[in-house]
Amino acid sequence: MKTILRSLLLLFSVSILVANNLQVSTPTLTGQVISGNLTTHYTFVKFTVSWENSWRDPLNWDASWIFVKYKVGVGEWLHATLSTTAGNHTTPSGSTITPTSDGKGVFIYRSANGTGTVNYTDVQLRWNYGLDGVGDNDLATVEVFGIEMVYVPQGSFYVGDGTTANVDGQFSDGATTNPFLITSETSITLGGGQSGSLGNRNTVGVSWVDDFNNSTSKVLPAFFPKGYNAFYCMKYEISQGQYSDFLNSLTSTQASNRFPNQNGNYR
């Protein structure tokens, strides 16, 4: 079956520390499937991704956050909707792909413990282009972006330092000077002074006070992330090159809002 969609351009990103050298090869589009409703039509974005100093141990690992942007003709760059089912992607030997629930990207990382350079060839991410309103005969350009990440496993941790000097609204267990232990993502009582509530040392030394203290309490709802559940965070700040790639995949108006008074200049 002829693939009408085609890839034209890749902007690859390099981590802020050159030694880690995250690289993504020029992508191609392959394996277009046209069947059923347009929303079920898809193709695969194929590329190679590699980086140095990769690692995995029994607790956590590093990963690359990979996402795809596309434009039809000379239109705007938009986020491609990828399959949310891991089995719909082609995973190279030695790697694992975990897609996000919104379909806007995947994490790719080692499938077993180890350290050193990884080179995952022929990664194929299923792009459900029909869900993005792209037609079967549209001429599309795709770009693949990558950012190095670290997986932080689920676990309890303390907030507050327990100091009795230089108090500036540090977190505490109620009205005490003890640190407060985060043990779940359930709701937390803020203030009120009781043990088991999250205190703020009665806002002593704080220029802009909170809306809770030892006598006034609030509730931090369960849906607000506490940091207990597992999550990914960036390994490094993005480089100037990565930010340039980001700006170049926006409209002129969008880019100007994120790089004030410099639109049209080399960036």
Could you describe the 3D structure shown?
The protein is mainly beta. It is 6% helix and 35% strand. It contains two helices and 16 strands. It has helices at residues 240-247, 252-258; strands at 23-24, 28-33, 42-56, 62-72, 78-79, 95-99, 106-110, 114-127, 140-152, 157-159, 172-173, 180-182, 188-190, 198-199, 218-220, 231-234. The strands form five sheets. Strands 4, 5, 6, 7, 9 and 16 form a six-stranded antiparallel β-sheet that branches. Strands 1, 2, 3 and 8 form a four-stranded antiparallel β-sheet that branches. The model is unreliable at 1-19 (pLDDT under 50).
The main pleated sheet reads as:
6 strands, antiparallel
* Series of H and E elements: EEEEEEEEEEEEEEEEHH
Share of residues in helices: under 10%
Number of helical segments with 4 or more residues: 2
User: Uncertain runs with pLDDT below 50, 5 residues or more?
Assistant: 1-19
Computed CA radius of gyration, to the nearest angstrom: 23 Å
Distance between the termini: 40 Å
Structural class: mainly beta
Q: Rough shape?
A: elongated
Q: Strand share of the residues?
A: 25-35%
Would you count the extended β strands for me?
16
Mean pLDDT: 88
